[in-house]
Amino acid sequence: MVQTLGLNQIIILLEAFRWTILLAAIAFVCGAGGGLCIALIRTAPFRALRGLATAFIIVFQGTPLLMQLFVIYYGLPLIGITVNAWVAVAAGLTLHASAYLGEIWRSTIMALPKGQEEAAKALGLRYRTRIVDVILPQALRISLPSTVGFLVQLVKGTSLAAIIGFTELTRAGQIVSNATYQPLIVFGLVGALYFALCWPLSHFSFQLEKRFASAR
């Protein structure tokens, strides 16, 4: 039975949009924690740990996000670990975000003038104090434009959750489109919702980049 595109269908899209926002937020927050650990390990004086962190980044940056979601959702049950679509998508996006944010923040840490750390050492500050009080505040400030830019990509990446059956915005658009046979209008609304979320973030990232460039 063909349905008419109306208020009920729009509510379905808005409900799914809420899940898209929530999924992106969880992946970004958890990925930020993982990314910070990766960045610190990659810049720490521990060769073995640096090698493990490098391998992690190579795997998750060198393979498609869609494949990672497939491996988690369909692969883990093969070894006796069953996860639902929500957990699989959240875990996949978190690992993906950890790899990219870790590399973004590592590059900004490495870009800081060497004199910053040398001065901290000369003052007798321990490694933890040097990182927390001297290095990270400067590095994270410099990386803000790139970090916000990655958040935009992460929001768009949530659309891949539809492939494994999780009903976020893109999946809801497919369902409503199939019910109403009005794909142009439905996906026009879906695109407008993504734009309403991503454009302000992109604009904010651009403004941060301009501000930091003028400050330098």
Topology of this structure?
Blueprint: H1 7-42, H2 47-62, H3 65-75, H4 85-111, H5 114-122, H6 127-142, H7 144-157, H8 169-180, H9 183-215
Task: Characterize the structure shown.
The chain is an all-alpha fold and 216 residues long. The chain contains nine helices and no strands. Helix 4 packs across helix 6 (127-142), helix 4 (85-111) packs antiparallel against helix 7 and helix 7 runs antiparallel to helix 9. The longest helix has 36 residues, at 7-42. The chain is flat. The mean pLDDT is 87.
What's the gist of this structure?
The protein is built from 9 helices and no strands. The protein is mainly alpha-helical.
> Number of DSSP helices?
9
Total number of strands: 0
The helix/strand order is HHHHHHHHH
Mean pLDDT: 87
What's the shape?
A: flat
Q: What fraction of the residues are assigned to beta strands by DSSP?
A: under 5%
Helix proportion of residues, in percent? Answer: over 70%
Radius of gyration: 21 Å
Ranges with pLDDT <50 over ≥5 residues? none
Span between N and C termini?
A: 62 Å
Find the structural class using helix and strand composition: mainly alpha
The largest sheet, given as strand count, sense and whether it forms a barrel, is:
none
